[in-house]
Specification:
This protein is α/β, with parallel strands linked by helices and about 525 residues long. It contains 15 helices and 26 strands. The chain has a nine-stranded mixed sheet with strand order 2-1-10-9-11-12-13-14-15. Strand 13 and strand 14 form a beta hairpin. The model has no long low-confidence stretch (mean pLDDT about 90).
Length: about 525
């Protein structure tokens, strides 16, 4: 079924063009089951036609409750060919949380994989919406699509049609649905491709869940545009990932620092052949220097990336060969991306070498939050995205992220960045992880409270850790209290759940006061 020509920046054509160049090339290796480009496009076109015949049209939203899979990629490609938006929800959430996101998305159709059917069924029962649903795959929606409740006419996708709706983690507030259009996905991938090209003979390992932006816009979509093979994993098991790198001759991958550390600490690390790997990107959280060094000793040095879902996500990167590498933790903007440091209070640009909130401009930015004009207006100002991150410019094109602005606390009139204190604590040989939050203080306004997880089998006293901090930090930055804990609470992609830590810190203080 043909509905006039699609926009020049629409992504459905990427799969079609790759299939035309090399139809028998493996597009996806899904747990050992290979899907060629020819078959991927056949399935996507068939599903696209079935969706149109069932009354689904451009502007409709399709929610999926599914693990990472070839079926979900087929669904994405079909949506891309039809002008529909795919909203993959996190299967790590509770049924009530998924129900809330279904309500927020207001989908025309919900598709579910077999493994998540009970979870999806409970969520749909809790959601106050009336929405057709079906199983994903060749035996599900690809065989029969339920009729749309509100039919739309079919038309070709346009550049400004929503393509992906991805929910932010919601660690500090209710999750918000980030709308990425075909155009924004096109340009964020063009930026990535110019900085870190992917070729048809590459094999890309995708270990991040498909409810996260990086599982699409950091390597996989670029790989499918190039005609490369993407190896999909549903979970993360370090030994298995190492075996996949060796057996599939993986050339490119992207992960978060915790995943890279778990690979280093795995018993199979030293014995695994990593020689095929030419590009390993680390993002989603700060990457400690010792982790970079561990990877550099065995494989390609990690390439660091910084971004956020609202930016598509690609904003800054630091490649091993980049000249800013020698100047500490600085990174540079991707091609097509402009950055500016602004005073958080006034929005005025700070001078060279100054510190301010990082603002981002470029064609890869999101179109807004789902049905939330106020939240969108709060972060999109005259075409610039306010990231909420505090950064420093070095005057040579390099930018260093300091911390989240909302994580900064003020002690005795001085700003304290938790990330700086955490880095100091993690320099102690027995500390595995550290997290610092600001807590109310009658004299200083706020003081830092640290939560520390030690390395396996390690034992160290709080006094020693405090002395360690005093040797490295100004007095007002030294935590007023350190709690040694078994582990740190984390949300999506290894990000510290600071809201939970703040609640724990306040509860500890109140308990002592009441006691």
């Amino acid at each position: 079924m043909t509905h006039t020509d699609p926009g020049e920046h629409t992504l459905g054509r990427w799969f079609v063009d790759a299939a035309a160049r090399d139809p028998q090339r493996a597009a996806i290796d899904d747990r050992g089951v290979v899907l060629t480009y020819e078959r991927l496009v056949e399935r996507a076109r068939s599903l696209s036609d079935a969706l149109a015949q069932a009354g689904y049209g451009a502007g409709d939203r399709v929610v999926t409750v599914s693990g990472s899979s070839a079926d979900q990629v087929v669904t994405f490609a079909a949506c891309a060919l039809s002008g529909l938006a795919l909203a993959p929800l996190s299967v790590r959430l509770s049924a009530a949380e998924i129900a809330a996101q279904i309500e927020r998305t207001d989908p025309a159709l919900v598709l579910v994989d077999e493994d998540r059917a009970p979870l999806a069924r409970e969520a749909l029962e809790l959601a106050h919406v009336s929405t057709p649903s079906a199983r994903m795959g060749t035996a599900g929606a690809e065989a029969h699509v339920p009729r749309a409740l509100v039919p739309r006419p079919a038309r070709a996708p346009r550049d400004d049609d929503p393509l992906l709706i991805l929910f932010t983690s919601g660690s500090e507030a209710d999750p918000k649905g980030v709308v990425l259009t075909h155009r924004s996905c096109f340009w964020t991938n063009m930026a990535l491709g110019q900085a870190m090209p992917i070729h048809a003979d590459d094999t890309v390992l995708c270990i991040l869940p498909q409810f996260h932006v990086a599982a699409w816009n950091v390597q996989p979509l670029l790989a499918w545009r190039a005609g490369a093979t993407v190896v999909l994993e549903r979970g993360f098991e370090p030994s298995r990932v190492l075996r996949l790198i060796e057996s599939r001759r993986v050339t490119c991958m992207m992960g978060v620092p915790t995943q890279y550390r778990l690979l280093v600490e795995d018993a199979e690390w030293e014995g695994t052949d990593l020689g095929s790997l030419r590009l390993a990107v680390s993002g989603g959280a700060p990457t400690p220097p010792d982790l970079e060094e561990a990877w550099a000793s065995r494989a390609e040095r990690l390439t660091l990336g910084y971004g956020l879902t609202e930016a598509g996500p690609n904003v800054l990167y630091r490649a091993p060969s980049d000249e800013v590498h020698a100047r500490g933790r600085a990174a540079r903007p991707y091609p097509h991306v402009s950055v500016s440091l602004r005073d958080p209070a006034t929005g005025l640009e700070v001078g060279p070498g100054g510190q301010g909130e990082l603002w981002v401009h470029g064609p890869g930015l999101f179109a807004g939050y789902v049905d939330d004009a106020d939240a969108t207006a709060a972060v999109l100002v005259d075409g610039w995205l306010r990231t909420g991150d505090l950064a420093i410019a070095d005057g040579h094109g390099g930018v260093t992220i300091v911390d989240r602005l909302k994580d900064i606390f003020i002690s005795g009139g001085e700003n304290v960045a938790p990330a700086e204190v955490e880095r100091a604590l993690e320099q102690h040989s027995l500390v595995a992880r550290a997290a610092v939050v600001g807590v109310p203080d009658r004299v200083w306004g706020e003081r830092g409270m640290a939560f520390v997880a030690l390395r396996p089998g390690a034992a160290v006293g709080v006094d020693e850790l405090l002395a360690h901090c005093r040797d490295r930090l100004a007095g007002f930055k030294v935590p007023v209290r350190i709690e040694i804990v078994p582990d740190l609470p984390r949300g999506a992609l290894d990000k510290i759940a600071r809201a939970r830590l703040r609640r724990s810190a306040v509860a500890l203080i109140r308990k002592e006061v009441d006691g």
